[in-house]
Sequence to fold (371 residues):
Amino acid sequence: MRRWKPIGAAVAVLAVAGALVVGVLHGPGTPVAGPAPTVSVSVPPQAGTVAGASLVFATFNVCKVSCDAPAPSWDVRRTRVARVITTSGADVIGLQEVTFNPTSTAKTQFLDVQNLIAPAGYVAPTMPAAADQCRWTAANPHPCDNTTGIVFNSRTVSQVTTPNGTASAGTLPSSGVVGGLDSESAVRKISWAYLQGAAGTGPFLVVSVHTDNSQDPAAEASRIVLGQALGPWADAWNAAHGFPGVPTLMLGDLNSYKKRQPNGMQQVMVDNGWLDTASAPQKRNVQYSTINHNPKLPADQQGFPKAPYIFRTSKNNPVLDATRIDYVMARGAGLSAADYEVVIHLLPDGSFDPEYQASDHQMVRSTITFP
Fold:
């Protein structure tokens, strides 16, 4: 496949009080201990080390600045979020709930995260103002619910210029993908960028998506409509940017899962040609949910429990079916998922390692092999 010219990314690393020291206390390669059968936590193969050229993609809802109790404050969680990202081994990460709300150390939460992870080589795509449809201006201060972002490891991935000179990154409201959404869903921000890795991994389109979490009929109908539209929209978007037929990676919190919504957005997307990387032949930590809200957890621990709820099979439920609302999906001829992992860091007693308990969600990641 033709290689496209990378965009040089100049990143200004601001001085941040309490510089992040990246260290893995119980990280990649450490067995997950606990009373139930477990799967080891390990970093997926890096680009070029599995059959065909590959990259590691992840999605991570970091929980907004005002994350609900019993979540620690953002001042505590910020370095934990950065630690999860910088030790993940991911090449490209879609972020959710990385807001434009201010923090004690940066103008916005997203800038705070970027400043913390920049020393490890992670950067956000650059975009012209016109392509950033969700930008806040005096004339239009609230065009979107700003809850998504994209970062990538600049040592393994680069942003590319488009063949026809159009923008190679930007944002848009979900209403820019499809009409007919309810008012809350319509303003949900979608971030997008054209990137490429080494050895033929790209160019590709990556989109970060975060749907409304309401369970009312209008929100559910909007999620399904968006799921039906994302594939055709991506195909048209690629063609309009001079990249017809390139792969698309969707990294997102869809607020939809099989047990509650068997025909929900996630299934609609699979039915419309998306690869759900949870179908990969190698899986890790799938006995854990991607979100730490569960009616079987104590009420005062919802979102931030001392230990994760462990899903098990039974005679009546022979298939392991942990709650999963965070997804890595791929669309394109010849793409395959080599592995899939719910990224979780535990202490030997099976409780969460507080140094990595950053959000009410777990990161999800997968190694995608390109043809």
Q: What stands out?
A: The chain has one domain: 35-370. Residues 217 and 223 are 10 Å apart (CA to CA). Helices lie at 74-86, 109-117, 183-186, 217-240, 265-271.
